[in-house]
Amino acid sequence: MQPNKELIGASTRLLILAALAREASYGYAVIKSINDEADGLFVWQEGTVYPILHKLEKEKLVRAQWQQADTGRRRKYYYITAEGRDALADGAEQWNGFHEMITSMAGGPNG
Amino acid sequence: MDNQPLDPSIEEKARALCAQITVAHDLDSEIQEELYGHVEDKILGYLRGEISVSGDDALILVREHFGDAATIKSLFQDVHVTEVAVSQWRRYAAAAIAMLGCTLVGEVALNAVFVFTHLFQANLMWAVWIVFAVLVVATLAPWAIFVRWQRTLRAGRRPWYYRWHFTTLGVTILGLAFVKVLIPSIGISVDANSNSLPASFFGTDFLKWMMFSGRLVLIFLQCLSWLWWCDASPRTGRSTLNAAWAWCFSFAFVSTLPRMFLSLSKATDGSMSANWAGPGFGFSMPLLGRFGMLDLIIIAMVAAFVYALSTGAVKRLRDGLAI
User: Fold this and answer.
1) N or C terminus of chain A: which is more exposed, having fewer CB within 10 Å?
2) Which of B38, B30, B53, B40 lies closest to B4 in space, CA to CA?
3) Residues B236-258: what's their mean pLDDT?
4) CB-based contact B38 A76, cutoff 8 Å
5) Is position A110 within any domain?
């Protein structure tokens, strides 16, 4: 089942922040790690992830730096900032809240 | 990991792909370099077999290798010229029937409203709004009909105009064009009672300007609906142009036929001769005014250009010619 676009759109920022919280990385590697984790749950239009990375950078939730990747090629690495970790924690808490509410209502007597 | 560079020709194409994304002069080189990194990793991932190919990926590859659908359609049409022409003529005939039918119903409705203006002497503002509504609906109703037919086609059913014989289609068109001659009570044209309509309905400059621009917009939209209907997917520049000509011709010619017929009279030697000295070929409807052949051609060509631009047909035509 392919989740709707709004759901993917709303979760993209948090997923990226979560991936970067694990380890600093560049666009392709971030997308690859999230795709591996998603295991077919959704498929991103990969090019659209880069504008989101740039937006996160503008909001100072991540910072970027050009450096050598394991492959020896120059890649733009993104590092999550302290503000980014706070935003990730807040966002994850909100998602959990919604998740619990929906699960509870859908699983209730009239669900 | 393998640090082999990309093949130069592939690298050039990948860089060209990224170069299409221009954001701001100062940022472009950095953004394009970052995106190129992504494309490069992706290509290498495929080449090394690190990325498995999904059904969607395979479809994209097949589509790329298959070629542009519009170009293939065009090549098929060059082979099956007769079948394409027959199919297109059937579409034109169906469109003409829809438009003539809607125009006729619109004229009858307008006459009915004008008859009411003679029955009531009050200041009938509602009649003005009904007149405008009838004009809009009668002019644009074919679009709704075309959408319905298109759904029938997409559902895999053969619509009536593919089943009807050409003679039946022709007789129906002529019947709709001549119905006012054949049934005189439909052909009676009633003028509105000027005493019962608001004074502003007649003669003000603003209203004249509104009517002029309004009728242009309506006819333009009607032409667009014809183009959309006659130009089956995928769109090509050629079929758009043909549809535009067909719209001009059917409107100018079909709606002129009854006038030409009525102008025939017996000459002194007993033969039939045309003494018609009318204003020429054209389409006319009460209050929408009269459109001559030149007006229709200009409207159709502008509509065709706008339509082709909006559907990418101009680009396809250019690409097609470059092959």
Assistant:
1) N
2) B40
3) 71
4) no
5) no
